[in-house]
Design brief:
single chain, alpha/beta, Rossmann fold, GMP Synthetase, Chain A, domain 3, 6-stranded mixed sheet, elongated
């Protein structure tokens, strides 16, 4: 299996930029503001033919208490424990700082091997920092520029011995019959279900994921807006791989003032776009406000299966009124997805969390539903007989046939010679019928009209 590399350093030295460079993505948020990264982010890194597992970490701070900085430091310490090698980044242009020296002392005392990397050395810059870095006692520094890709070859040479050690261990485990690689006839692609957890700030998204995976994988706390990046966590539920994605809280657009928050919201929207099922987390003390509805509508527009979790149920004073409010909002404001599954939970006490995954998997199955063309057209005939299409300009619209073009979400094509004349109200009648008669509760349904002849009709 690939070896693991953790990128470590004080804030604003370019750790996330290097993560993006080595993974070939832009998943890690990058900004001039120090301390952008808070949770550790993981991804598959590559330099030429060298592959490894990469962990981006929060900027190291001198904090050992239960403050946000202290909790971030503990996350970094866990990443270092999991890594086969650490890349200790310093800023070559800023030169050596007392904080760099302090953490270099710490890294020399741990068991994980450390490579010293001097970043921001593009075009000959950072010479002073490069020379000063020898004083850290971590060996010869590797000069590079994560932003411009300079010096990556030197990093390749430094990491190569760790790949060789990893390959040796893998061969030994294969001899012992314990190889973790897929064997003959096994599928290398695990077919993981992509599940995004979204909602307003401080509704308990990260706490729910921590409860599911059974560890403090994500930073949590009373502070609103702790999560900034969309962080993916791989997890196995009843033998099935689930790719959980924690996202930044989404406030109303009018309240977003800072560039960093705008980047975080963009990252959340991207997570929704690539998800298959989205869990919208509500606060039981203030359920379904305007922003919750905005997020729900966006999930539906993207065509994702939607599940609603009402969190902090232990704090709800009047539980009956809370559920009534949620049901009323769904009925009046989201009629296009009738039957959205709703469950209550408490990430603090664990109440109701066991209902999350069965509900998600059921929504996923509905989202993947396919209906045979024959059954669909028999249903269409019954629907038009019960409620014929309207008459337009003296002629009744004739619906010729229907077929399902795709699933994920269920998408149907309705053929008619006068498809452009079909009223929206009649299209909603058909969509509601599809939902009720074929059990497509709570998932978006797409219905497209096309002009054409029935290919199954006899001459």
């Amino acid at each position: 299996m690939p070896f693991t590399v953790a990128v470590i350093g004080r804030p604003n030295v370019g750790k996330s930029t290097l993560f993006n460079r080595l993974t070939g993505t832009r998943h890690a948020l990058v900004d001039d503001t120090p301390g952008v990264t808070r949770d550790r982010r993981e991804g598959e890194g590559r330099i030429f033919d060298l592959e490894f597992y990469l962990i981006d970490t929060a900027g190291l701070e001198e904090a050992f208490d239960d403050s946000l900085e202290g909790r971030m430091r503990r996350q970094t310490e866990r990443a270092l424990e999991d890594a086969d090698v650490a890349l200790f980044l310093i800023d070559g242009r800023a030169g050596l700082t007392p904080l760099d020296e302090h953490f270099a002392d710490w890294l020399r005392a741990v068991d994980t091997p450390t490579l010293l990397v001097v970043n921001k050395c593009e075009g000959g810059a950072g010479t002073t920092g490069l020379l000063d870095s020898y004083a850290l006692g971590l060996g010869d520094p590797i000069a590079l520029s994560a932003e411009h890709g300079e010096g990556i070859g030197g990093l390749y040479d430094a990491l190569l011995p760790f790949a060789a050690a990893s390959d040796s261990e893998e061969m030994e485990s294969a001899v012992d019959g314990e190889s973790g690689l897929p064997g003959d006839g096994e599928e290398a692609d695990d077919g993981s279900l992509k599940l995004a957890i979204v909602g307003r700030p401080n509704v308990g998204k990260s706490s729910i994921i921590n409860l599911l995976v059974g560890e403090d994988r994500l930073l949590t706390g009373p502070e609103a807006g702790i999560t900034r990046d969309a962080i993916a966590v791989s997890w196995t539920y009843e033998g099935r791989t689930i790719r959980l994605v924690d996202t930044a809280g989404m406030r109303r657009k009018a309240r977003i003032r800072e560039k960093l928050e705008s980047l975080s919201v963009g990252d959340t929207l991207r997570a929704i776009r690539y998800a298959e099922v989205v869990v919208l987390v509500l606060d039981a003390e203030a359920p379904f406000d305007k922003q919750d509805l905005t997020i729900a509508r966006h999930v539906i527009e993207e065509g994702r299966a939607l599940v609603i979790a009402v969190n902090k149920w232990d704090n709800a004073a009047d539980r009956r009124s809370v559920m009534q409010r949620v049901e009323d909002r769904l009925e009046t404001s989201l009629p296009q997805v009738r039957g959205v599954p709703v469950f209550t939970c408490s990430a603090k006490t664990g109440h109701g969390i066991k209902k999350l995954m069965p509900t998600v998997l059921e929504a996923y199955d509905y989202w993947n539903s396919r209906i045979a063309t024959g059954a669909l057209n028999r249903w269409l005939q019954a629907m038009t007989e019960a409620h014929p299409p309207p008459v337009v300009r003296g002629r009744r619209i004739r619906l010729r046939y229907m077929t399902q073009a795709k699933s994920r979400p269920p998408t149907f094509v309705l053929f008619s010679q006068r498809a452009d004349k079909l009223p929206e109200s009649y299209a909603r009648y058909l969509i509601n019928g599809l939902r009720e008669d074929f059990g497509l509760e709570g998932v978006p349904i797409r219905l497209h009209t096309r002009k054409g002849d029935n290919p199954y009709a006899k001459d």
